[in-house]
């Protein structure tokens, strides 16, 4: 079934229809219109499955995608043009160009935490770059998966873009096929499975994975702002955000003050009873809730700690006194629990972060420019913010992606166009002249080469 669909898309791709700029612009517009016509249902589904508030649903999913589409449409003409680059003197008479071309048919595999945005934002890049695409949403948010299928089939013929629904079995079958590009967003262990599958056909691959992203607050930080932005970034979507601060490193001298302020903002944002808050999301499944609840027995609870497994609900929680060897520090938390560690020197901070694989994100709260620079220079991470959380993901001018185990390749804005394009390098030589020193019959060929290629 999937094989037939892929063959159909490959056949359609070969007609060349998807590559004209006019076509691409028209499809992006169609996609936007289809989303607009389902906007309310998208909001409702996000609320139903994850209890995402309308503010989060719009700003982090729907509006995010509109902005991405608008940005693509504005710049597409310029990006699709062949780009002239310099040519060295050794190539006298020639001109050099980069021609962006679509890969062909892309497979986009999406997770459940931002089930709309993480399926559609890559698709925007695929369409802008001139590809056909098959999108496989997550089985953990089945209503959104069905809605995505509805939206996509309203906008597009399946020979161009299609949604294939299902879980691991469907994903495994799709991964056996020979796509021209795979764009995967999800966990590190599944990323490894995807990469292994891609290697069988040497399929170009973008991996958007996760990891343990640290937040650092030093003694010079503006604690009010740090507390507010940390609470927002950690507890949005109940911590189920790939770039949420996973753990907090705070200078011993300001720890108590920061924690007091964070508790204040948790109450401000979600009330005294967050279980009734319209702004606080649920955990995606009972299984995921149980995994998170097991972390609550480690260290001592500074704030929160209540939960209701059947309701898939965990209170925004801060924990102190956790050891680096505790299970909570052995895997990505991906939920509303924030372990806090105190430090006394920045070198200690760097050593702590180096216990783990390169993180997807890193956040520094400090007014000390030297400290900011020192951390950026010494620690490798996908992307991040100084004195903020999450916001680097929401600008089309900053490519978003990981490094090392947090993934490779990047997208958003121009980077999305690039992620789904191959840049074909073309040298156009003149026939009006011919530099003879490269030929073996030139008497001083080697002498000239030695001069030119120093
Ligand atoms: P996941 O890896 O379990 O699943 C992602 C997708 O892969 C789903 O569509 C699923 O059906 C499929 N899948 C699962 N197991 C598979 C297998 N064995 N073979 C083939 N396909 C399989 O991830 P998740 O639980 O949906 O999402 C959470 C993870 O995703 C976290 O680690 C988070 O950090 C990461 N994430 C990363 C980003 C990013 O942009 N870098 C964004 C969101 C989430």
Commentary on this structure:
This protein is of the alpha/beta class and 454 residues long. It has helices spanning 2-14, 21-37, 39-50, 54-80, 117-128, 142-155, 168-176, 188-201, 223-235, 255-270, 286-295, 346-353, 369-378, 414-419, 445-452, and strands at 83-85, 95-102, 105-109, 132-136, 161-163, 181-185, 205-208, 214-217, 247-251, 300-303, 307-308, 313-314, 317-320, 337-343, 361-365, 383-386, 407-408, 421-428. A seven-stranded mixed β-sheet has the order 10-13-14-9-8-15-16. The chain has a six-stranded mixed β-sheet with strand order 5-4-3-6-7-17, with helices on both faces. A three-stranded antiparallel β-sheet has the order 1-2-18. Nicotinamide-adenine-dinucleotide is lined by residues 109-113, 118, 136, 138-139, 167-168, 171-172, 175, 185-187, 190, 193, 208-210, 242, 332, 334, 360, 402, 407.
Q: Which strands sit side by side, in order, in the main sheet?
A: 10-13-14-9-8-15-16
Considering DSSP H and I runs of 4 or more, what fraction of the residues is helical?
40-55%
Strand content: 15-25%
Shape: globular
Cα-atom radius of gyration = 25 Å
Mean pLDDT reading: 97
Which structural class do the helices and strands define? Answer: alpha/beta
Key words describing this protein structure:
454 residues, seven-stranded mixed β-sheet, 18 strands, globular, binds nicotinamide-adenine-dinucleotide
Short description:
The protein is α/β, with parallel strands linked by helices and 454 residues long. It is built from 15 helices and 18 strands.
Question: What's the topology here?
Answer:
Blueprint: H1 2-14, H2 21-37, H3 39-50, H4 54-80, E1 83-85, E2 95-102, E3 105-109, H5 117-128, E4 132-136, H6 142-155, E5 161-163, H7 168-176, E6 181-185, H8 188-201, E7 205-208, E8 214-217, H9 223-235, E9 247-251, H10 255-270, H11 286-295, E10 300-303, E11 307-308, E12 313-314, E13 317-320, E14 337-343, H12 346-353, E15 361-365, H13 369-378, E16 383-386, E17 407-408, H14 414-419, E18 421-428, H15 445-452
Parallel strand pairs: 3-4, 3-6, 4-5, 6-7, 8-9, 8-15, 9-14, 13-14, 15-16
Antiparallel strand pairs: 1-2, 2-18, 7-17, 10-13, 11-12
Bound molecules: nicotinamide-adenine-dinucleotide (NAD).
Nicotinamide-adenine-dinucleotide is lined by residues 109-113, 118, 136, 138-139, 167-168, 171-172, 175, 185-187, 190, 193, 208-210, 242, 332, 334, 360, 402, 407.
